Amino acid sequence: MVSLETPVCDFGAPAVDFALPGVDGQTWTLEQCRGENGLLVMFICNHCPYVKAIRERLVRDTRELRDQHGINSVAIMANDPSEYEEDSFENMQKVAAEYDFPFPYLMDATQEVAKAYGAVCTPDFFGYNAALELQYRGRFDASRKDTAPADARRDLFEAMVQVAETGRGPAEQIPSMGCSIKWKEGG
């Protein structure tokens, strides 16, 4: 398992459109996912210990961002499921139901959307403002493979609240760290 860090935020970069199948049986596009004040695009998977360490907090924070701040979220799984059965579409459906994901959970089977975004690891977060301009490319919180203490700073949540209120993300951002995306052979 290779651990990688995300690159520095490319402020103002536009969100990339997509049309991907969700675990709910419908196809989702960028336009359908966006919120009034912005959109958080997350590249996650089921098997990664970095994702597992934040899953409950991720559900809490994305629900609060949606309900109180007008920021919607979408999760995209781009790993090659032939490498990790835990990342299969059926298992994505199970995890989404078990954790009551308050966002669409989409399968990027071709991995083209992950490549277009420049995603490198799970979790990898792309926080956009209402104009769908990139304002955050940082970590969720201080969690790594283990969950950070309950009083840890909520980096992503605070940044996205700032984006909702001002349209701009924080100048200082700590990169996200996680498992490398499992690219297909020749990918």
From TrEMBL:
Species the sequence originates in: Thiohalophilus thiocyanatoxydans
Protein's recorded name: AhpC/TSA family protein
InterPro entries listed in its UniProt record: AhpC/TSA (IPR000866), PRX-like1 (IPR047262), Thioredoxin-like_sf (IPR036249), Thioredoxin_domain (IPR013766)
Cited Gene3D superfamilies: Glutaredoxin
GO molecular function (one): oxidoreductase activity
Segments forming domain Thioredoxin: 9-145
Organismal lineage: Bacteria, Pseudomonadati, Pseudomonadota, Gammaproteobacteria, Thiohalomonadales
CDD domains: PRX_like1 (cd02969)
